[in-house]
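The material for today's practical consists of a large collection of protein records. There is nothing in a record beyond a sequence line and a structure line. As an example, a complete record with its sequence and its structure tokens follows:
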Amino acid sequence: MATVKKDLRGLRCPVPSLKVNAMLANKEIQAGDLLEITADCPSFLEDIKQVCATRKLQLVKALVEGNVKTVTIKV
């Protein structure tokens, strides 16, 4: 199991969530891997929860520090 980290700060919503979807669709992350994403768009946390629900992924951790959100997803 690998941990893939992506820093998507500076991208406007919904681009971070779209990039996560693209990484999953392109098989950049393998089943069982952890994906740690950092973003600062206002709706990122809600958007990524929707991605997890749609793709049946497990949201392992969500950390909010000011306007920066870091989430860990198990693929």
In short: The chain is about 30% helix and 35% strand. The mean pLDDT is 94. Residues 3-74 form a domain with the Translation Initiation Factor IF3 fold (CATH 3.30.110.40). The chain has one domain: 3-74.
